[in-house]
Amino acid sequence: MAHQILRSSRIASSTRVAQRSSRVHAVSVRCAAAPADVMLEVKDLTASIAGTHTPILKGVNLTIRNGEVHAIMGKNGSGKSTLSKVLVGHPDYEVTGGTAVFKGKNLFEMEPEERSHAGLFLSFQTPIEVPGVSNVDFLRMACNSRRKALGHPELDPLEFYAYIMPKLEMLNMDPTFLNRNVNEGFSGGEKKRNEILQLAVLEADMAILDEIDSGLDIDALRDVAKAVNQLRSDDTGVLMVTHYKRLLDYIKPDFVHIMQAGEIVKTGDMSLVDQLEAGGYATL
Amino acid sequence: MQASTSLGSACRTQLAGKRVVSGHRYPNARIALKPAKSGAVASAVVAEDKWLARTVKEVATPSSLAALREQSKSALATLRMPTTRNEDYRFTDIAPLLRTNVQPAAAGAAVPSELLAAHELPGAAARLVVVDGVLRPELSSGLSGLPAGTYVGPLAGAPEAVKQKLGSLSNSRGGPFAVLNGSLVPEVLVVAVPAERQLEGPLFVLHLASGATGADEVAANAPRLLLHAGTGSSAELVEEYVALPGGRRYLTVAVGELFLEAAASVRHSYVQREGEGSFHFKSTLVHQAERSQYTLAEASVGGAIARHDLVIQQGGPETHTQMSHFLLCGPSQTHDLHSRLTLDHPHGTANQLHKCIVSHASGRGVFDGNVKVNRLAQKTDAGQLSRNLLLVPLATVNVKPNLQIIADDVKCTHGCAVSDLRDDELFYFRARGISAESARQALVFSFGAEVIQRMGHPVLQKRVQDDVSRTLLSAEPFAASA
Q1: With a cut of 0.90, is the ipTM above it?
Q2: Nearest CA distance, B232 vs chain A (angstrom)
Q3: In chain B, what are the domain boundaries?
Q4: Shortest CA distance from B430: residue in chain A
Q5: Chain B residues with beta carbon closer than 8 angstroms to that of A128
Q6: Could you give the CA distance from residue B318 to residue B320 in angstroms, rounded to a whole number?
Q7: What region holds the SUF system FeS cluster assembly SufBD core domain (chain B) (predicted)?
Q8: Which domains does chain A have, with CATH numbers?
């Protein structure tokens, strides 16, 4: 069932991060004992572009349990990004059928901000720039909105600094980041890092990372992946959308899904990725 | 030679129920309202225009101003105040002003110290307090600390060469309100920066206006500025217009003439925060010599009817002009920007960003931005963008960004967007748990910030942003999104 735990202990979970390499194995063991709670369950989801009614998703099924990392791969136009946007309620798409249950609640009955309050987070592929609004104000606004929704007291600017400083440190980010305007003049890497900072600030339970590897050089990718790994725990879920194996080398998925023409056509583990790298989508 | 004229215009007019009028019926028609240049007519001449005849009173004329006054009065004699039948004033109805009587402001108005304290500009080289058009040295500061050779003060003591320039731009290219200023101006503030002098810190001119007491009267506030930046010099000018306490019933009719010599650089910030219900008409006339650089950032948020006539002439090659404007039209506010930039020489650059928010059904924004690239202005790089936000049904903007290109080897772009906030912007906030209404407020705020931030000076920015917040709050609550 829905659990709203404050996971302040998560930050100190370096031991868990160290155990990630044997993740796949661990999952199978745990499944045999007592399966973890289901975080997100998507059933027969169909969706189309709002206005034109062009169908994009044609029956997606996906179950993500607490602690699991899933990756979705697929060609351009297969519906990967659409799936991630539909889950957070992007107005460009309309759900035409199926269900999505997040921590026991029907996602499609919730407004985008309510989904965020419930702990669902999407890292945008191309985050927008907001001149005139400083990053720290934006983060505090977001943080306090969720705290309010959860019945926690809001943080004043000073308290918020105390709250965010350790997170910046953990993500190895420069505090001057806070005083810049939201994404204005940020490099590709900085924008992605800023998204992960938002993820850390919101302490979301389920992170959907839409191509966080696009436009990143090797160092930036490593930093972003490291940050994501640090934010993982047994209570959170991660859904990555990517084209490339290199991200999955850094953030090891428990499950890999292949998406084609709006459906998940194959599910497996990392070996599926190796197969893809070797022979492309045609070999699947 | 390669002709690369690209003219990309994206006009999005949308949102049912919002009135959007873009473009004039006769895009190139201009009604001439130039003052007659006779100058020989005696000052006793009575204006033909009824309002002018009724309202323009005899004002004391210092001897240094005699020539300007004479020229203006003779022009006034045949001047008619514009109506909406004049192309240049088609969307800016000044009828409410023409129902008033203009009275000279009483001399020596008291200025509360709290008002001065609330209008500081940290880092300014000098603060010049101009009350009803008259420089008040006892309220000003930093005048004595200016570097040698820099003149800041009344016209009478200014360098002779600079004095000569008075009126040379406004007489030929100023509109009716520039003529009115010439008839009413009590004193001219002169800023003369000698060649190669880099002035540190901005010169901050704080314009204060007192109001009239009679029901159908408005007090005249006719300040005038003459700036001369010598060859290779640089200076920053910050102008802020505010009301004295209780000042509602007044008319500001301001003129600024700016002369930039070769390779001079002038940064100009102009903040119009006039009192509620007041009238504000400003003419800024700029002449740029070769390789000079003029950067203007403007915020117009106060007053009832406000208009800025901005006329810039690039007088030499490799000259750079940058203009950014932010106008906010709240309840019963009309804000008009008419800009005319003429490029006559090669390798000039020009960039204009106009942003306008109309937050109330009774608000109106007007923009006519003309950039003229003449035959000799080859290799010009000019860009012009107008973005307009209409926040409520019936909010109105009349926008006409226009390029006239005669040269054939130039790069020019212009665009115009009239819209509500973008859905993807709103969604970014909502996806982070921020309510649609808070998101709208933050985004509206951010819309103007792009221009306001170009002024620098956080204290000044805050004054403008506070006004913006007040106007947005006073308007009816934001229409519910989606």
Answers
A1: no
A2: 31
A3: 71-421, 422-474
A4: A113
A5: 424-425, 428
A6: 7
A7: 218-447
A8: 38-279 (3.40.50.300)
